[in-house]
Amino acid sequence: MTTNGFRPLDEKSLMEYIKVTPSLSSRLGNQFDDLQIKEVGDGNLNFVYIVVGHSGSFVVKQLLNFVGMWSYAGSPSRLFFLTLIKCLSITVGLHLISIMMQRHVREDNTLKLEIAELKSMFCERAQALIHGDLHTGSVMVTRDSTQVIDPEFAFYGPMGYDIGAFLGNLILSFFSQGGHADHGNDRKAYKEWILRTIQDFWNLFHKKFTALWDENKDGSRRGFSPSNL
């Protein structure tokens, strides 16, 4: 990012970086007056900045070479002991039941067989190139377009994996809303919106997938071998 190597960006250094990077400055029409830069990441693994100017806007995401909260802990040894103390403070009385639960799981042959079958499906059914980590935080939406980001976990796997992961993320969000509710907002309307989104997402996916399947089922389209194997 600089001639001196990596450095974490802040609003000032990002402004300097934008000015000397033609692919970014051109999106702003090379106009930097009244430029708005806002950091919207969680400060943990990445910095995410929204940059808005009179002539355009974009998002800058910087992957850190360390965990963002690391400086809070100090040294690795201090982090280890602080984590250990915190763990012990919240697990008092749980040790025995944890052992019993682990034993129950380890002796459940039906469960282990199901896990093995799912693992086999995940590793061996290379049906399509999939995203691998698709959730609502991986999708950026405007009124006119939808972009999917963070493809670093992409691999060839079962084609239903991404759809299931995305729907699972919405379902988790639905059940978590009770913890965000307060006297001013019971979150019921938002939960209903999540359920409608799940239904709309699946119905639209099913419609488009089956249409593409019917269109290309004879195998004569681009990307398919014309020979009968």
How much is the average pLDDT? 84
Shape: extended
Q: How many DSSP helices?
A: 8
Order of helices and strands: HHEEEHHHHEEEEHH
Structural class: alpha+beta
Distance between the termini: 50 Å
Secondary structure: helix percent: 40-55%
The total beta strand count reads: 7
Give a quick account of the main beta sheet: strands, pairing sense, barrel closure. Answer: 3 strands, antiparallel
For the CA atoms, what is the radius of gyration?
24 Å
Looking at how many chains there are and whether they match, the oligomeric state comes to single chain
Major sheet: arrangement of strands: 1-2-3
Weakly predicted, low-confidence segments: none
Count of the separate structural domains? 3
Percentage of β-strand residues: 5-15%
Family: Belongs to the methylthioribose kinase family.
Transmembrane segments: 79-97
Pfam family, one: APH
Keywords: ATP-binding, Kinase, Membrane, Nucleotide-binding, Transferase, Transmembrane, Transmembrane helix
